[in-house]
Amino acid sequence: MTTNFDLPLTTRRPDLMASLAAQGQYDIAVVGGGATGLGVALDAVARGLRVVLIDSHDFAKGTSSRSTKLVHGGVRYLAQGNISLVQEALQERMLLLNNAPYLAQPQTFVMPTYHWWEAPFYGIGLKMYDALAGRAGLGKTELLSRAETLKYLPTLRPRGLKGGVKYWDGQFNDARMALALARTAAVRGALLINYCRVTELTYDKARVSGLVCEDQFTGQIYKVRSPCVVNATGVWVDELRQKDGLAVPGHPGHKTQAMVAPSQGVHMVVDREFLGSDAALMVPKTADGRVLFAVPWLGKVILGTTDTPRNDLAREPLPFEEEVEFILKESARYLRKAPTRRDIKSVWVGLRPLVKPPEDEGSNTKGLSREHTILISHSGMVTVTGGKWTTYRAMAEDVLERCAEYGLIMHTKKGVTKNLHLMGSSSPAVVERPLCEAPGMHSYGSEQTFLQTIAGADHELCPGLTEAMVRFGARYEYALTVEDILARRSRLLFLDAALASQLAPQVGKILLQETGIAPQTDQFQQLASQYLLKSVEKV
User: Fold this and answer.
1) What is the CATH superfamily name and number for domain 83-171+260-355?
2) Lowest CB count within 10 Å: 263, 322, 430, 484, which one?
3) Residue 3 has what pLDDT?
4) Which residues of 205-255 form beta strands (DSSP E)?
5) Is the pTM of this model over 0.85?
6) Within a 10 A sphere around the Cβ of 3, how many other Cβ atoms?
7) Closest Cα partner for 268 from 535, 527, 495?
8) Is the pLDDT of residue 364 over 50?
């Protein structure tokens, strides 16, 4: 099913808040504008339900804009024997690539081998990966000779190299994918509001009946009525779970046991020259058993990642010093020209919501579930967490099926989003540009022609970012602050933090013209300094 769009739907703040103030009755109210919440909102409105979504910050501000940028089935999960999880993810991978081809595309990976047994060992596993994908496969796994491996990865250290294994997975622009989900839901009738914090839940005879939220810019309070409230706030789900039931007479006021154990992944960006290839480097097992990758993305290279337990839920977590050293040290083992701290253009940290079993009080995240979990409280509030970007659509379907089973929404037909093309994908003339290239108008898909009609289309603030893109973000993409533009509508903060900081005043002036809201330029520049690796934490 292809969604036809004539002109983009405006997202002016006054209009959105006026709609929220109307206090209409909704079939479902979603809290959280990350991949999961946006997926639920889109699936629900596509089924004909009345939908409102509220987020305390910007859409995809948290984990959903700080992913590894991979759409994958989970090669590592094969070793754990979780075949069904891998198979589902591989099918969802293909759907995601088909529904937003300008934002998600196939990516070649090469796994170098330095011992005789590695090629057959990993090759067999990846052949199984291909088999599980079936018709949803992106390409065949191949065993490479030493010379072929160096052709794909010319900056790889040749000493001791035996050969390699080439396989395929997907890559995407996570923050812009989130925006595409939000805007597709909106054009179908959903109301989506960012920068609006839920302060409490409301009840009718001890059952959730809606929520109260506060505009983060004006402080104005709004009430939303809905018999079905979905808590999809990712790693922060326990915050809303603690509020559940507190307004019910006779509630004991006890604390709800946390269901999320956060783990953080660190990603560092360097110039393309360190990899010198459109193929990605994947090391499945480093010296201490963790995974290392170097992936070309938007003209740069992402190095990562680690999997480290974290006890706090900081909105802007800093990398641990040992993680930075680990990535640099392991990169030097595999790359002829190893990046140093001076070469890092940007570093960001993402918190993963790993589901913590009730009986598990430990801190080790390796054994925790990366599958999603859905809980329905005694009051009827639905909480969903866990999972990953690749399976956002399947997660949304599962949430709505559980809501229907529990009587919170009416039963509706599932599968309506399998072939639902997202904003920017409505024209067969969409140009699919490789995500390894520098960002530009191709990030807008079929909307790039309309973008060219906006004032400032020929005024380039920096390569890949024009004045028109800033105006488009304010008018049609919910952007209100400099961070919204430079971190998520464009990805400049994640690619070159110093350049993003330099452009902040220009972007702020344009935004102020468009929105009339203070664009928080100084706050953004303080944030950008954290992405420059000037600040790290000791474990």
Assistant:
1) D-Amino Acid Oxidase, subunit A, domain 2 (3.30.9.10)
2) 322
3) 46
4) 207-215, 221-225, 229-231
5) yes
6) 15
7) 495
8) no
pLDDT digits 0-9 by tens, 166-199: 999 999 999 999 999 999 999 999 999 999 999 9
The rounded distance, in Å, linking the Cα atoms of 264 and 306 is: 7
- List, in order, residues 6 or more apart from 25 with CB less than 8 Å away: 50, 225, 226
What Cα–Cα distance (Å) separates residue 239 from each residue in 315, 475, 505?
13, 32, 35
Place of tokens 């088999």: 131
Q: Report the C-alpha gap between 147 and 161 in whole angstroms.
A: 9
Task: Give the closest residue to 183 by CA, choosing from 399, 417, 11, 426.
Answer: 11
pLDDT of 286 reads 85
Answer whether residue 441 shows pLDDT above 80: no
- Amino acid identity, position 16: L
Q: How many helices (H) and strands (E) does the chain have?
A: 16, 21
Query: Which top CATH class is 441-530?
Result: mainly alpha
* Superfamily of structural domain 13-63+176-257+368-405: FAD/NAD(P)-binding domain (3.50.50.60)
**For position 252, what pLDDT does the model report?**
53
Cβ atoms of 95 and 171 within 8 Å: the answer is: no
| pLDDT grade for 383, boundaries at 50, 70 and 90 | very high
